[in-house]
């Protein structure tokens, strides 16, 4: 009987457990399900945020890559610019010892100024001799013309026709000799003038090594003058930028040592540069340099730029390096890229180089 009572009690207890467990679990399942729903939404939102951020970064990187490509590859500007100038190598047209030097190194000179003087003694004597020769030829011509006139006035009874012709010809020879003497005098005077070697341009004497006592050889340059009216800038542009460069386009040149830029105009484009593969070998065969097919280096083409304006504080020196920008430096880039560059670099849209300080 005791075992039956215990079994009956266990059955009742098992029959009552499910309703108790169900009642005890229902208030716990509600908060857990809500927490799981909120957590899922948060994870989904975070995933979307990460995807959006990644897409934004990729878009910004693509735009930045395009802007950098435009700026460094196709935009018409270069840091490889050089200030150039014409240098006059002056050589004497007469030879002699330098007796006077009238300039110093780096001195400003004007066209026609005397630079140095060659010993004029020999040339002065040449002028005196030529003048004396003219007097001699004039006297001889006078005598020959008088003789010819007398023979011409005689009849054929007193003289023959042949004799008349001989005296007339002698007078013509004397006349030609006088013209020769006059030419020699003109040449002697010109040579005496040339003993004073003069500057042919406005400029500045450079690298002066000539001294008094040096012997000046005819046709051998011994003094050099920089033509200060001939400065220009050569910009060496990569061939990828040449499509946006045209003669007549405005240009701005920033020298490395000065803050104020120079302004100028594209004057011309070089139509040829040296080709290494065009050279032949010692056997007359083509000399072709090996290249990597996946690397192509852009050739640089010289562009001559005329200087229109030089700031007062800038002293031009041939050989200076310059950054050269043609036009506004943007080339054929789209407007949105130009606006983005203007926003990034602080230049107003459509502004021309060198106009920031204009009135």
UniProtKB/TrEMBL annotation:
Keyword terms, alphabetized: Coiled coil, Membrane, Transmembrane, Transmembrane helix
Species this protein is from: Methylorubrum aminovorans
p-hydroxybenzoic acid efflux pump subunit AaeA-like beta-barrel domain span: 230-326
Entry similarity comment: Belongs to the membrane fusion protein (MFP) (TC 8.A.1) family.
Positions in coiled-coil regions: 171-198
Region span, Disordered: 1-39
Pfam families recorded: Beta-barrel_AAEA, BSH_RND
Domain Multidrug resistance protein MdtA-like barrel-sandwich hybrid: 87-227
InterPro entries reported for this sequence: AaeA-lik-b-barrel, MdtA-like_BSH, MFP_Efflux_Pump, RND_pump_MFP
PANTHER family per record: MULTIDRUG RESISTANCE PROTEIN MDTN (PTHR30367:SF1), P-HYDROXYBENZOIC ACID EFFLUX PUMP SUBUNIT AAEA-RELATED (PTHR30367)
Domain of life: Bacteria
Lipid metabolism as UniProt keyword: no
Name of the protein in question: p-hydroxybenzoic acid efflux pump subunit AaeA
Biased composition (Basic and acidic residues): 1-14
Regions that span the bilayer: 48-69
């Amino acid at each position: 009987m005791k075992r039956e009572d215990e079994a009956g009690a266990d059955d009742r207890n098992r029959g009552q457990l499910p309703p108790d467990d169900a009642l005890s679990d229902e208030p716990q399942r509600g908060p857990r399900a809500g927490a799981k729903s909120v957590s899922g939404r948060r994870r989904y939102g975070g995933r979307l945020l990460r995807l959006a951020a990644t897409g934004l970064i990729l878009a910004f990187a693509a735009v930045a890559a395009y802007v950098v490509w435009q700026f460094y590859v196709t935009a018409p500007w270069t840091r490889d610019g050089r200030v150039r100038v014409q240098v006059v190598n002056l050589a004497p047209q007469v030879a002699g010892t330098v007796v006077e030097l009238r300039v110093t190194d780096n001195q400003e000179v004007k066209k026609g100024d005397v630079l140095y003087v060659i010993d004029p003694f020999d040339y002065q004597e040449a002028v005196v001799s030529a003048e004396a020769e003219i007097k001699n030829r004039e006297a001889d011509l006078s005598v020959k013309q008088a003789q010819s006139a007398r023979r011409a006035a005689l009849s054929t009874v007193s003289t023959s026709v042949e004799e008349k012709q001989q005296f007339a010809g002698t007078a013509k020879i004397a006349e030609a000799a006088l013209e020769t003497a006059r030419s020699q005098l003109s040449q002697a005077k010109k040579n005496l003038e040339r003993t004073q070697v003069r500057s042919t341009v406005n400029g500045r004497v450079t690298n002066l090594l000539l001294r008094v006592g040096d012997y000046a050889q005819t046709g051998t340059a011994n003094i050099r003058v920089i033509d200060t009216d001939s400065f220009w800038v050569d910009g060496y542009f990569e061939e990828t930028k040449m499509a946006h460069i045209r003669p007549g386009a405005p240009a701005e040149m920033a020298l490395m040592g000065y803050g104020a830029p120079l302004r100028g105009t594209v004057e011309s484009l070089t139509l040829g540069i040296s080709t290494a593969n065009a050279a032949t070998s010692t056997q007359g065969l083509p000399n072709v340099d090996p290249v990597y097919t996946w690397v192509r280096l852009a050739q640089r083409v010289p562009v001559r730029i005329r200087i229109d304006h030089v700031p007062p504080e800038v002293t031009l020196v041939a050989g200076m390096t310059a950054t050269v920008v043609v036009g506004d430096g943007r080339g054929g880039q789209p407007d949105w890229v130009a606006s983005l560059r203007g926003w990034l670099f602080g230049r107003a849209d459509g502004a021309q180089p060198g106009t920031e300080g204009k009135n």
